[in-house]
Recover the amino acids of this structure.
DNA sequence: GGGTACACGTGAATC
DNA sequence: TGATTCACGTGTACC
């Protein structure tokens, strides 16, 4: 409401003055200017064209102000009521939306169907503080040293869901290659997680492994 | 490039004329206006203030035009080079981004953690033409008639993936209620699908069922 | 040549 | 009071 009132203060008064001059001051100006022009050249057609131009320009200004008003209406973050500030805020807002769109799109495409990187790094630090520093190291170590580098694990899909307070579900799909199953077991063993339930299935050149893990108490 | 050239045609020429007048025509105008004003009132202070106002206004216009130019640069869909059209396109683009953001957000929240509708309808028609008209009917029928309506199956997540040419993986997560497991079995039995592998697990008030189905040959 | 779009200088209003 | 912002009328360039 504060912004609204300030906006009305800035704009409606101006628009009101504008329409007001369309009635009162406008006639005065016309007579004054006609007198000035008539003293030099009493041309009616030119005066008519001039007034046409005046009203045309007035409409153009009003349209542009209305557009700017509408632009102001669709931009949420309000700072000042300047014309320049309005455009500036609109620009920043558009850039912000673009960045957010790009971020979300990449997140979706990577989360839903994109391939993950071949290096498997389970980083449970972000929201699950069961001391994973050592485990993370172990994973990388066992994967980098123990596994044969000739056939890395090609993770097609990896989903980590947090169900309830202490249950983590890791669902992993990878291409079936040499010792893929063994490697997966090694990796999950190296994690030393408290596994509630694990299921591995091989079919049509792919390996699906679903593991239910209980998080340690912090 | 066409738009770019047209834009330069509209703007750069104007800006060039503006800066040009700042050098050459500006001095001419100053002398002319100073002569006009000096004839009526030879006030140096007022003239100085007037020129201050002039350059100030000139900078303001330039800033506003630059902002409008920058706004134009961040809006992808170009129609016309009008000032009003620029603002209009910016408004439409912002509204479009807002709508898209709202759509994606709702899609994400519904896809990732939201509940699906209680009515289970396996519509395999869209990309898997193994005659499912009858099956679909059977599902709805068995679900609507056989199941006890007091505790409907609350599907939390349903994913249908097509792996290879003839394998369909149906992954289903629902809340664990009375006879949820039995109902799920009934539903999958009523489908009369060629099931390769099925796995049901119950944990923490939820039931997860993963079924590997081989599609019939068409 | 009517029509459109623009930059310009200017007076007024607000802070 | 000086700085800033605005609407206005006008001349000009382009179709």
């Amino acid at each position: 409401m504060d912004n609204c009132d300030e906006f009305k203060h800035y704009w409606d008064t101006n628009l009101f003055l504008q329409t007001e001059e369309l009635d009162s001051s406008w006639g005065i100006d016309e007579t004054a200017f006609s007198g000035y022009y008539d003293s030099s050249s009493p041309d009616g057609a030119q005066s008519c064209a001039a007034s046409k131009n005046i009203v045309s320009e007035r409409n153009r200004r009003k349209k542009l102000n209305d557009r700017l008003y509408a632009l102001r209406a669709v931009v949420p973050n309000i700072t000042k009521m300047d014309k320049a500030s309005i455009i500036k805020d609109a620009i920043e807002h558009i850039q912000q939306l673009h960045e957010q769109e790009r971020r979300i799109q990449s997140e979706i495409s990577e989360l839903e169907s994109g391939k993950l990187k071949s290096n498997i790094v389970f980083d449970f630090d972000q929201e699950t503080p069961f001391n994973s520093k050592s485990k993370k190291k172990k994973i990388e170590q066992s994967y980098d040293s123990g596994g044969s580098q000739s056939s890395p694990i090609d993770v097609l899909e990896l989903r980590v869901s947090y169900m309830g307070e202490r249950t983590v579900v890791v669902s992993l799909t990878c291409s079936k290659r040499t010792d893929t199953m063994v490697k997966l077991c090694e990796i999950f063993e190296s994690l030393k997680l408290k596994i509630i339930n694990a299921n591995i299935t091989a079919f049509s050149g792919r390996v699906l492994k679903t593991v239910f893990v209980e998080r340690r108490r912090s």
In short: Strands of chain B lie at 155-163, 167-175, 194-203, 206-214. Chain B has five helices and four strands. The two ends of chain B are 51 Å apart (CA to CA). Residues 9, 13-14, 17, 49, 52-53, 56-57, 60 of chain B lie near DNA strand D (CB under 10 Å from a C1').
